[in-house]
Amino acid sequence: KRLTADASVALFPSLSEGFGIALVELMACGLAPVAFNVGGPSDILGGSPTLRRLLVPGGDSTAASAAVIHLCRDAETLKEAQAAAKVRASEFSWERAASARLAVFEAAIARRREAEDSQ
Questions:
Q1: Whole-angstrom Cα distance, residue 38 to residue 97?
Q2: Which mean pLDDT values do the consecutive 10-residue runs of the chain (119 residues) have?
């Protein structure tokens, strides 16, 4: 958090990203994220109506710059995005990931048992 203490916005310019844990970590520190609409960032920010607006077309540096400038000039939008970022980041935890994975496995086992019982 000390590294981001003087920052308000996180520009995440990755063109290819699986999940983007660094993006979630920056959001957890309260930074408003601006990211390209690709892979993980799309899934992460797309889960929030407020943050979805901060996704810009992949590789469009002009759109990314405009989004950052807009956040820097509009204090209300910046505060809203920072708050939404913290909330969205809190939705990603190892406990939630493990629970989701376990639910997938349990559903697969249940389907297999149902298929075996119907034979």
A1: 21
A2: 80 84 93 94 92 95 97 96 96 83 91 88
